[in-house]
Design a protein that fits this description.
Number of helices: 11
Strand order of the largest sheet: 3-2-1-4-5-7-6
Radius of gyration: 18 Å
Shape: globular
Strand content: 15-25%
Length: 273
């Protein structure tokens, strides 16, 4: 699957590289008075084409990565599950479909437009009683301490300005049990040899251009490239998770290290002391 992605990436790069130069010089303009890049207001602007753009930019692999994230949670019957940065609810829906025995899946996202699209998808699938979506902030969750058995976040932590505050808030609302799981899926800067170099070319030169052309929002998808470049290295983010009160169960790499899945459990209070 990953070899297919590289081959497709090179083809797409050849097709889009010239378009990127043209777009930068003549066609696409940065929005004036734009909302903060990475904010809910920014995602409000791209919500209508978000799902389509994700499929195209990831060469159709984003749903496979999300499926791996869901499997890593080890969800059990009657679990309470929280999906942060839920967007249009892809992960929340996947959890409810794969694990019909869960008590409830709660999805939270700062973008009202994304949440509204997610709600329509949930209604169309008849999952209204299984999945509930709320507009909210991962650094200030409304739930009581120790409310959730499993928590997921796909491609969202990168956009939160105060990541440590979000991780500490997640630690607050997750149950302090050995069976509890936090799974965070995120893009990162590929490191390594020739294949990783090809992945870097794809991320920095192809992905933002595809997003800009499909959405008409140039600055929003230039933010994607910059935010990936600036996200902490794997070992540094693992350290942040430890500082927030989690221990790493496993780290998985996909797409030649362009995508990383962090699987964690909360450190019991006694061990933290």
């Amino acid at each position: 699957m990953e070899w297919r992605a590289v081959a497709m990436a090179l083809v797409v790069f050849s097709a889009f590289h010239g378009m990127a130069e043209e777009c930068e010089q003549d066609v696409c303009e940065f929005s004036s008075g734009s909302p903060r890049l990475g904010s809910g207001a920014m995602f409000d602007k791209i919500a209508s084409r978000y799902d389509l753009i994700n499929r195209v930019m990831s060469l159709g692999m984003d749903q496979w990565w999300r499926s791996w994230l869901v499997s890593s949670l080890d969800i059990e019957e009657n679990d309470q599950v929280l999906d942060l940065a839920t967007g249009t609810a892809d992960v929340a829906i996947m959890i409810a479909q794969k694990h019909p025995g869960v008590s409830l899946v709660s999805g939270v996202d700062p973008s009202e437009n994304m949440i509204n699209i997610g709600r329509r998808k949930i209604q169309d699938l008849g999952l209204d009683t299984s999945v509930v979506l709320t507009v909210g902030d991962a650094t200030d969750l409304r739930w009581m301490t120790s409310s959730y058995d499993k928590i997921s976040m796909a491609f969202g932590i990168r956009n939160i300005p105060d990541r440590m505050a979000a991780l500490k808030e997640i630690r607050r609302v997750i149950k302090p049990e050995m069976s509890s799981r936090l799974a965070i899926l995120e893009f990162g800067e590929p490191e390594g040899g020739i294949i990783q170099a090809a992945a870097r070319v794809f991320i920095h030169n192809v992905v933002p251009v595809i997003g800009a052309l499909l959405s008409g929002k140039w600055s929003e998808y230039m933010h994607l490239e910059r935010s990936i470049k600036e996200f902490p290295k794997t070992e540094d983010f693992a350290d942040m998770l430890a500082q927030a009160g989690f221990y790493i169960v496993k780290i998985e790499k996909f797409a030649f290290s362009a995508v990383t899945l962090f699987i964690c459990s909360p450190v019991p209070v006694a061990r933290r002391e």
